[in-house]
Specification:
alpha/beta, TIM Barrel, eight-stranded parallel beta sheet, three-stranded antiparallel beta sheet, 15 helices, globular, glycosyltransferase, tRNA_ribo_trans-like, transferase, queuosine biosynthesis
């Protein structure tokens, strides 16, 4: 899912996203609740009309941003009190409040409020976060009223296998229509993240979506899918695109490099997006060097298209029972030996 934090995937029209195969978008509860406000979005017809997207939308609960962006003042089993990163005002978010905001926003998939501790937190802190996440999941489920929204539970537990197992085992009886894995890709080495997926994913129902939050690189996506993950979100395609870095079938390309100045080749001959079918690498470099906004737009669109094609190709490989070979082939093309 491309990330539309404030109701927009930066620099891209919804129609462009559709053209490159995007099916579902993510919007951010924390940011939209602060600006323009959930009540404003509701009055303007909900997220679908607000951002002119007729496909599925997922919103997170705001928990990750509360624990990572805002200055925490107090947290207990009933709510978290924090300072807005915009104007410094004191705000409160409870499990029921997180659900109410997401019901106002009107996404199709919504998330329980969870506590996401730092990656290097002591085990006892992570254990407490797991227990509170379970409690909040129950409170969110009780507060949830809209039948047209699917509420996902979130597994926490840091990089402690027993705590991941504990979190998953506590959430399963709540019978959510989907399950997310949170608290990963927050600074731990990739092998540790993969190890936590090896522990967690087999515990989650195969007939429900399994969502790895905030991930990741093309390598991460392949590794996670082969471990049973179905759904991802990440700012990397558009953020890297805005900063002149493209993902291609042959690996990463830094568009500001001097070697691209007179390069007439397309960015990626295996891609059918506008950046690759209409423009040369030399022109794309010129846009970035000149500070023209078209450069970030084209590379953002290309990176989103690359991610969508990667996932389509991986689905096909799974259907044809050659997922392992697909991994080997892609890693070799990207210069990855493991």
């Amino acid at each position: 899912m491309p990330v539309g934090t404030l109701g927009t995937v930066k620099g891209l029209f919804p129609a462009q996203l559709r053209e490159v195969g995007v099916q579902k978008l993510l919007a951010n509860t924390y940011h939209l609740a602060l600006r323009p406000g959930a009540n404003v979005v509701e009055e303007l017809g909900g997220l679908h009309r607000f951002m002119d997207w007729d496909g599925p939308i997922l919103t997170d609960s705001g928990g990750f941003q509360v624990f990572s962006l805002a200055e925490l003042r107090d947290i207990n089993d009933e709510r978290v009190v924090f300072k807005s990163h915009i104007d410094g005002s004191m705000l409160e978010l409870s499990p029921a409040g997180a659900i109410r905001i997401q019901e106002q926003l009107g996404a199709d998939c919504i998330m329980v409020l969870d506590e996401c501790p730092p990656a290097n937190a002591p085990d006892e802190v992570i254990r407490k976060a797991v227990e509170r996440t379970t409690l909040w999941a129950k409170l969110c489920r009780d507060a949830h009223q809209r039948d047209d929204q699917a509420l996902f539970g979130i597994v926490q537990g840091g990089v402690v296998p027993k705590l991941r197992e504990l979190s998953a085992s506590q959430l399963l009886p709540l019978d959510f229509p989907g399950y997310a894995i949170g608290g990963l890709s927050v600074g731990e080495p990739p092998p540790e993240m993969y190890a936590m997926l090896d522990v967690t994913t087999p515990m989650l129902p195969e007939d429900r979506p399994r969502y790895l939050m905030g991930v990741g690189t093309p390598v991460d996506l392949i590794e996670a899918v082969l471990r049973g993950i179905d759904l991802f979100d990440c700012v990397m395609p558009t953020r890297n695109g805005r900063n002149a870095m493209a993902f291609t079938s042959q690996g990463k390309v830094k568009m500001r490099n001097l070697k691209h100045m007179t390069d007439t080749a397309p960015l990626d001959p295996d891609c059918s997006c506008p950046a690759c079918t209409r423009y040369s690498r030399g022109y794309l470099r010129h846009l970035f060097i000149s500070g023209e906004m078209l450069g970030p737009i084209l590379l953002s669109l290309h990176n989103v298209a690359f991610y969508q094609k990667l996932m389509r190709d991986l689905r096909t490989a799974i259907q044809e029972n050659r997922a392992t070979e697909f991994r080997v082939e892609r890693f070799a093309a990207w210069g990855i030996t493991n």
